[in-house]
Structures are given as structure tokens and as C-alpha cells.
Amino acid sequence: MSGEPVTEKADVVLIGAGVMSATMGTMVQQLEPTWTIRMFERLDRAGSESSDPWNNAGTGHSALCELNYTPQAKDGSVSADKALVINEQFQLSRQFWSHLLQTGVLADPKSFINPVAHMSLVFGEDHARYLKTRYEALKPNKLFETIEHSEDPDVIAQWAPLTMAGRPRGERVAASRVVGGTDVNFGELTRQLTAKLAENGAEVAYGHEVTDITRGTNGRWQVSVKNRLTGQRTSVDARFVFIGAGGGALHLLQRSGIPEGKGLAGFPVSGEFLRCTDPAIADQQNAKVYGQASVGAPPMSVPHLDTRFADGERSLLFGPYAGFSTKFLKTGTYLDLPLSIRTSNIVPMLAVAKDNMDLTKYLVTEVLKSRSAKDDSLRQFYPEADPASWELITAGQRVQVIKKDAKRGGVLQFGTELVTSSDGSIAALLGASPGASTATSIMIDLLKRSFPGYADRWASKLTEMIPSYGRKLNDDPQLADEVLEATNRALALA
Predict the structure, then answer these.
(1) CB-side exposure of 106: number of CA atoms within 13 Å?
(2) Is residue 145 situated within a structural domain?
(3) Which PANTHER family does its entry note (predicted)?
(4) Cβ(197)–Cβ(40) below 8 Å
(5) Which ranges constitute the DSSP H helices of 205-318?
(6) Of 245, 279, 416, 437, which has fewest CB within 10 angstroms of its CB?
(7) How many helices (H) and strands (E) does the chain have?
(8) Where are the beta strands (DSSP E) in 261-312?
(9) 313 and 277 in contact (C-beta within 8 Å)?
């Protein structure tokens, strides 16, 4: 028997035990240790959906190798602006993690972050010219000063041996590399943060699903929670609510009824990876190698051959092979998409469907792609790959944001979208890449929006945790050197 609902109170309610909620909760505990925090996760452990290392969130996105962050303009030029923003954001995460390691919140850095070179690899004349232009645009910037570029097959073979062995010598190949990249196991990071949250007084409830969010007459939020095992229902009266439930965030945002959520819709994209855990192969290469996306492909579908570290093991991952599913979560249901349709978002959804035929064609092609065709794609990056050494695994779900647009009716957003109520008392994070890598930056933004009256009170503590807080490393070479040296030392990356 579920019994009568139990009513409780909390200063902060975090929905979902992924890296976003874990980061938000950790920041709140650092800034306001007396605030009460409740975290609810529908699964049986933290970091099991989008934050899991096998569910896409493993690169440590810092724009060192991801070409979609440096698009080419019609005149052939390449802007470094977006890449700089993302790299600055990732540097905030590195500083915050360093602080948490020094204060005992996090344990051995090798358990969640490891040095791995980040490399871009392209084929053909046009792509080679683009990559050279990109290199020239990034190189003058402090945060990209260590980037290298080569079109010499022998040099590229030294950088990433598997990509060049067996490749025809006449093929035009170009590569850029930054040695100081990383691989991040966001699942492990999330679990350490969540465990420490609980140790420091937060109530973390696994196997609990938030079913509704409503505004109470007292102006606070009433969060309805169900224990998935016992059926017991709880109502939590919360001052502030953060919906960090990955693909599940849209449904809960809609239930909240805030005007800022009106008209928003989600476009789910699923996918698969090929994974190789054979040490004889994986140990040959210590690089993340990113290529160019296919025509019509969403940014998160950029092909890449990744060195990964998970649970103490080193492996290689190739993909992703995009697909389509109406689920919003890997553990969701096929009704997720249809149940998200509202009168306020149907027009934007139809407009996006009309304007993104290339994406539709790409997804259909990917869904129909055979295993042998997937192996052929792998061999474009790793010519001598033996399919028998690679297993096909299902990746996590990504839900891209669809927003209203006055001219086009609706637009498909690639990236993350932080939606907050006008009074800042409730917020939801929607979207995908660069996502987890920029969690610290996103949560700082959220704190500013939701607790503007605390800005002065928190400034010194934020600067203690994040030395470059309020400044840009790229504009201050001396500060950049100090911060990079300190974080490399703390994260055992030096």
C-alpha cells in the first residue's frame, strides 16, 4: 500500500542525479552549507543516463578538436569565437574539480579524468584547406597556442597510428592536434559528487520519480515524488527546483506551467557506437580523433575515434551512428515524444520538420545502415580495423530543443538551453553537447539568475573555488599560465 502522501520541505530540490544536478548541489553546499537539499533519481544509481561514459558524455568538450564549434563562413573564413567560449567554460570545470580534489570532495583524479590528445582529422582538398584555416584562426589565441597542424602522413601516423596504418599514400590528409586534451568519465565524477552530497547532509533518493511540479499558494513549488519500489508518494515543498533530468526535463518543465516553457519541444536522436576493449588495439593510440560531419548530420553525430577510460579500463570507441527513437531517455518509453506535444509547440515542431529535410534523410539513412556499412565507416578512420574486435553498443538519448521563431515558425537548437522562470525559482536544462563539460559554467549562470541577491555574498567563495571567475583566461596570459599549471597539477595531468 502506498499510503497517504508525506509532505516535507527543502530549500533546494534537484531532479535527476546526473552531472548537472550533482554540480548544482555541490556548489550550493559549498556556498550555503546550511541549506537543505533533496535529490531525486528514478534509477538506482547516479550518472546512469546522459552522464554515463558509454552514453556519449566522455570527451571533455573543449573545442580543441570538435570542428562543429568552428564553422566555416561562405567567404571561407573561420571564426574562433565559439571555440573560445566553450574552452573557457571547460576551464571553469577544471578549476572547480581541482578545488574539490584539494578539499576532499573528489578522490583520485585518475578515476574520472585522464590526459588524451585531441585531434581533428580530415580527408580531401576542401576539408584540408578548411582545417588549415581553422588552425590559423585558433593558433594566435592563448587557450589554443599549443595546437599543431600537419599534412605529413608520417607525422600524423606518429600522432594517431591507427588512423594511418594501411591508408593509401596518395590520399590528401590533414590533421590538427592539441596534446593537452582530456578524457572525462562523467559518470564516475557524478557518482563521487553525489556520494559526497549525501555525506554532507543532502538527502539523495534513488528509485524515486518526480511525477508533477506545481506552484503552491505560498509561492513555493510542490514537487510530487513516487517511490518506484513501494509506491509511497511524497510531496516536497521547495524554495528552488532544478530540473536536471536530461531528456526527461521537458515533460517536467511543461508540468510546471511556467510561461518560459511554452512553445518548447524536443527532437530526440538516438545512436550507437562501436567499442573495442582489446588492450592490444586500444593501447596503440592515445588520442581522440574527430572528423567532419556528414551533410545534414546533427553536431553530436560527428564521427570520432575515441580513446576512453572507464572503470579503470582503456578502450576505443567509434561512432556515433545516429538513429531515431521517440524515447527521451534511454530508459524512457516510446510515448515520450507524443506525450510532449502541446498546442503551443505543434507549430514549431511542424516548421522544424519542414525545414530539416536533410536531417530527416540523414537519420533514415543511418537507421537503415547495416553492420557492414558501419564497419566501412570505421575503416575510414582506422583502415585496418577488424570488425570482430568491435562490439556494437547503444548510446544515450539526446533531445534537441525546438523553439518558436517569429519568421520560420520554429527552429531546431543544437546545444544546451537553460530555461528559468521569471523569478528564478525553477529552472530546467534542455539539449545536449557540449553539455557535461560545461556544467560548472552553466550552474554559475543558473546561480546568478536564481539567486541574484546573493551575488556579493558568494563572490569571494566563487573566486576561491574558481580563480578565473569573472575573467577570461584567453585575455589574461599570465592568469592563464597560473591556472593551467595549477589545474594540471591538481588533476594529475602534468
Answers:
(1) 25
(2) yes
(3) L-2-HYDROXYGLUTARATE DEHYDROGENASE, MITOCHONDRIAL
(4) no
(5) 249-256, 279-282
(6) 279
(7) 15, 20
(8) 265-276, 287-290, 304-310
(9) yes
In one letter, which amino acid is 195?
A: A
Dist. CA 429–CA 249, nearest whole Å: 7
Total residue count of the chain as it appears in this document? 494
- Count the domains in the chain: 1
By C-alpha distance, which of 186, 188, 72 is closest to 130? 72
Mind listing the pLDDT tens digit of every residue in the chain (494 residues)?
A: 455 667 899 999 999 999 999 999 999 999 999 999 999 999 999 999 889 988 875 667 899 999 989 999 999 999 999 999 999 999 999 999 999 999 999 999 999 999 999 999 999 999 999 999 999 999 999 999 999 999 999 999 999 999 999 998 888 999 999 999 999 999 999 999 999 999 999 999 999 999 999 999 888 999 999 999 999 999 999 999 999 998 899 999 999 999 999 999 988 888 889 999 999 999 999 999 999 876 656 666 688 999 999 888 999 999 888 878 899 888 899 888 898 999 998 998 888 888 887 777 877 888 888 999 999 999 999 999 999 999 999 888 888 888 888 888 888 887 788 999 999 999 999 987 678 999 999 999 999 999 999 999 999 999 999 999 999 999 999 999 999 999 999 999 97
Torsions phi, psi for 172 (to 5 deg): -75, 120
Three-state DSSP class for residue 275: strand
Q: Three cell numbers at 166?
A: 594501411
Task: Evaluate whether residue 462 is within a structural domain.
Answer: yes
**How many Å apart are CA 393 and CA 277, to the nearest integer?**
12
Q: Count of CB atoms within 10 A of residue 365's CB?
A: 14
Distances (CA, A) of 162 to 166, 293, 304, 346: 9, 20, 13, 47
491 within some domain: no
In a domain, 493, yes or no: no
- Structural domain boundaries, residue 264: 6-474
Closest CA to 432 of 13, 18, 74, 77: 18
Task: Answer yes or no: are the C-beta atoms of 155 and 99 closer than 8 Å.
Answer: no
Q: Return d(Cα 338, Cα 263) in angstroms, integer.
A: 15
Backbone dihedral angles phi then psi of residue 3, each to the nearest 5 degrees: 75, 180
Please tell me the distance from the alpha carbon of residue 399 to that of residue 271, in angstroms, as a whole number.
12
Contacts of 34 (CB under 8 A, 6+ apart): none
